[in-house]
Amino acid sequence: MEEKISFVKLDKNYYEILKKWWHSERVKKFWDNSEEMEQDVDNYVLKGEKTYYDYFIGLYDGVPYALVMTSEQTQDDYYKYYKNYLSKAGKKTYAIDFMIGNDEFVGKHLSSLTLRTFIEKYSDEEADTFIIDPEFENELAFKCYKGAGFEVVDTFVTDEGYFEGKPHYLMVRGREK
Predict the structure, then answer these.
(1) Interatomic CA distance for residues 155 and 133, integer angstroms
(2) At a CB cut-off of 8 Å and minimum separation 6, what does 75 contact?
């Protein structure tokens, strides 16, 4: 199965597909659908400008089915919850967000494999640390991330932004697992 998984940077070819996924009820339950995030995607695809994230579309045998978002993290970044978990080797650290967007691929047991494949074969080779932070209520995401090799290192409740007041797990993994 792994050989059928590939990734491409989000571009105009996948823009409308991503918008459809983003607005599905299943995704909206745990995803930041704020105007600010939509503007970030629009700027990335339509203007070629990166504000927060790089966006990658996961393809399974050529069919778009997943989204991975990455954002390099440094001591200077605003997200204070990550600061103690940045690379200890002086390499890059990336925060990741992930979803299976295509409803036809939900329940096919591809989530953990997809995330592992992205990290091990498609992510920035200069990175050795990856962070992800599912909400407590998102049990499926938590199981996926554990299956992809992430370990819980902390918990936190956001005090600002779209997820304000919601408890999260802080999970970390290295490039090799």
Answers:
(1) 9
(2) 83, 86
Radius of gyration of the chain (CA): 15
Model pLDDT for residues 78-92, shown as the tens digit of each residue: 678 888 999 999 899
Q: What is the DSSP secondary structure assignment for residue 94, as one 8-state letter? A: E
pTM here? 0.90
Per-domain boundaries in the chain: 2-124
**Which one is predicted more confidently, 23 or 68?**
68
Class for the domain spanning 2-124: alpha beta
pLDDT beyond 90 at 77? no
**CA torsion sign, 72 to 74 to 80 to 81?**
positive
- Give the DSSP letter string of 11-79: -HHHHHHHHHHHTSHHHHTTS---HHHHHHHHIIIII---SS-EEEEEEETTEEEEEEEEEEE-TTSS-
Cα gap 97→111, rounded to integer Å? 12
Provide the pLDDT for residue 29.
Answer: 74
- The sign one gets for the Cα dihedral 161, 165, 166, 169 is positive
Per the prediction, the chain carries an average pLDDT of 89
More confident position, 10 or 78: 10
Residue 55 tokens, joined: 């966006």
User: Tokens 């909400």 appear where?
Assistant: 135
pLDDT of residue 80: 80
